[in-house]
Specification:
heterodimer, A: SH3 type barrels, 3 helices, 5 strands, about 15% helix, B: mainly alpha, Cyclin A, domain 1, about 55% helix, globular
Chain lengths: ~120, ~100
């Protein structure tokens, strides 16, 4: 079974919704303004990379800090802590030329979900 | 997992309820479900990612027809059964008892 959660942390748990933020010194691969490509991965196991952005290009808006990687943590294969970024995708990129030009969406993405765009 | 839970961009699901005055819990059992989640999580029965992963294993039709806290119940039962702290028989016995009005 996973590690015991301290009862003293219950208030914090309710406030943060079970955040997996960790205090680990991990290098960030991306900075705000970087163009990134969401990976086209299709694991049959747990992932928090939505299907509709796979293979799409976005721009890093900000770095949220370091969090446990859900894909491995869900399978008890390690926490693999890494940076999570808020990445902006335009609706035109996601939904095509008929989408409103000004519409955009920000999606929180783990470092392992994205690659740099040269 | 490319499951039914990943609804982003799908049409025909109806409007998103953004009413800020909507109740946090729609029934008393939902309030209790929230409490049970806290206890089971604090007790180390699953981590938060395992909790989400189990919900994705629900049968697609069942997932769409059931509410938010029913998804939570499904996951909680899944993990508590997986580690032996709960059995199908215990759930069935309890449901039988409750259905007779003996809560």
């Amino acid at each position: 079974m996973p590690t015991m959660f301290p009862a003293a942390g219950v208030d914090e748990l309710i406030k943060t919704g079970g955040s997996t933020r960790v205090n680990a010194n991990v290098k960030s691969r991306f900075a705000p303004g970087d163009k990134v490509l969401a990976r086209n991965i299709n694991p049959i196991s747990h992932t928090r990379l939505p299907q509709y952005i796979r293979g799409k290009t976005g721009v890093v808006d900000r770095d949220h800090g370091v969090f446990v990687f859900p894909d491995t943590n869900a399978a008890l294969k390690g926490e693999k802590p890494q940076h999570v970024y808020s990445v902006m995708f335009t609706f035109r990129e996601l939904w095509g030329a008929e989408a409103a030009e000004e519409d955009k969406i920000y999606i929180d993405l783990w470092d392992d979900y994205i690659d740099p765009v040269k | 997992m490319n499951g039914i839970h990943d609804l982003g961009g799908r049409h025909g699901m109806g409007p998103i309820d953004i009413d800020p005055k909507q109740p946090i819990f729609r029934a008393d059992w939902e309030r209790r479900m929230f409490g049970m989640f806290i206890l089971a999580f604090a007790g180390g029965h699953f981590n938060i990612d395992q909790f989400r992963a189990a919900i994705e294993l629900m049968a697609p039709a069942e997932y769409l027809e059931s509410g938010y806290y029913e998804h939570w119940l499904y996951s909680l039962e899944t993990w508590c059964k997986a580690n032996g702290s709960l059995t199908d028989k215990e759930i069935d016995d309890r449901m039988r008892k409750l259905s007779k009005g003996d809560a």
